[in-house]
Every structure is written in C-alpha cells, then in structure tokens.
Amino acid sequence: MKPEFRTIVSVTDDWAIGCKGRLSASNRADMRLFKEKTWGHTVVMGRKTLETLPGGRPLPGRRNIVLTRDESFAREGVEVAHRVSQILSMVADDDLVWVIGGESVYRTFLPLCSACDVTVNHALCPKADAWFPNLDTHPGWCLSKRGPGGETDVGVASEYRVYRQRGALPRPHCRGGRHPSRRVPAPSRQPVLETPAGIRRTGSWRSGGPDRQRAPAGPRPR
Question: Residues 68, 82: contact at Cβ < 8 Å?
C-alpha cells in the first residue's frame, strides 16, 4: 500500500503561516502536538524550512527529507531530493509521511495528501509573507474534525482542525477523523482586537483571507 501523505501546519485566521521565516503565531500546545504527530515518521520540508529549525539541524526522532532545487545542497542527518518523484520513491515503504512546509512545498504536495492537520490561531497576521491554501473555501477539501487547541504565547485562543480531501477515507494509523460527509458549520466572525504581539485577535472560528502564492516560509521550530 502506498504511504499516506498528510500536512501539518499552524495558521492564523487569514491562513497566514509565516513572516520573514518566522511563524505567524507561536503556540506551545501546537508545538507539542507537532512533535507527538510526527515522531517516528518521515517529514518532508523545503531547504528554507530546514534553515529555520534550531541550528538549521534536522528534527530528531524523525526521518528528514529536504526538497530543494540546489543540486549542491547537503546536510548531515538529512536526505536530499530535487524532484517530487524522487521523494515518492524514497518513501515507498513508509506508512505515513508528514509535509511540514514551507508554502511552496505545502502547495506542491497538497494534491497528494489525504488529510491536513491544522492549528488555527484566532488572530490575524497583517505582515505575513507566506500562506497556506484556505481549505474552508477549497472545493476539494472539507472539515472533518475540530476541537480546542490551547492558547498562543500571548494568550490568543486556538483551535485544532482536521480537513480531509473529499473521497479520502481515514486510515487505521490516523487519529480521530470520520468520513467528511459534510462541512461543520462555523459561527460568524467576532470583532477584531489588537494583541501585545502586534497580531490582531479575532476570537472567531471562521477563517478567510488570501489564497496566494508566495515564497516558502518555515514551520514552527521543534
């Protein structure tokens, strides 16, 4: 059986994922979830994402694969691929592969993914320069699961969601997820408030914002 591909990402309500190589919102509960989900599995990332990790080193306890156009790139503890087809061959014997960023890598692998694990931090990031596709408006995806996700480091509430590609059934090794027969309705947007970090708290479950193509940005450091 072919491996299952899933993305894991942290966004704000406008689906921003980063600004100048940093996360749009810092959330320790999300960091713990990221480690729990990806530990022992293969993670796929771009070169710039690797550079945002502590010391530019690969994540421990996981098989790290970097997708880059740089034919000369090499890093200890990292497997390098220059084409998606290479990665598909490299992970042929895996059961689950996590795609962890940045933006261009997310967009490249999204059609291959059966599910996306998304932490939505209820704030806006006006200065963001990288976004994840808005799955609430994407015709090929639907919301399968939602629940509380803790708070960011500045006290902004967050929510954990699982989106599934339409027609994709959950696999035995995946947590939760029921078949996405329909979208779960979301309440209307709440007033926008400024937070000490300069991002704007919304207090809403409804997500919107741009679905734009920009340069890759790294995920949360682990």
Answer: yes
Q: Residue 60 CB: number of other CB atoms within 10 A? A: 10
Residues paired with 91 in a beta bridge: none
Query: DSSP code of 126?
Result: T
Cis, bond preceding 102 (omega within 30 deg of 0): yes
Whether residue 177 is predicted with pLDDT greater than 80 in this model: the reply is no
Residue 157: how many other CB atoms lie within 10 Å = 19
Instruction: Tell the burial category of 187 from Cβ atoms under 10 Å away from its Cβ (0-12, 13-18, 19+).
Output: exposed
Pairwise pLDDT comparison (203 vs 23), residue with the higher score:
23
Q: What single-letter DSSP state applies at residue 210?
A: -
The strands making up 141-151's β-sheet, listed across from edge to edge, are 79-81, 63-67, 42-46, 96-99, 4-12, 113-121, 157-165, 141-151
The H or E element spanning position 221 is: none
User: Which is nearest to 48 in space by CA: 21, 23, 25?
Assistant: 21
Q: Give the contacts of 79 (CB within 8 A, at least 6 positions apart).
A: 63, 64, 65, 66, 90
The one-letter amino acid at 50? L
Q: Are 21 and 52 in contact (CB under 8 A)?
A: yes
Rounded to whole angstroms, the Cα distance separating 96 from 8 reads 12
Tens digits of per-residue pLDDT, 122-146? 999 989 999 999 999 999 999 999 9
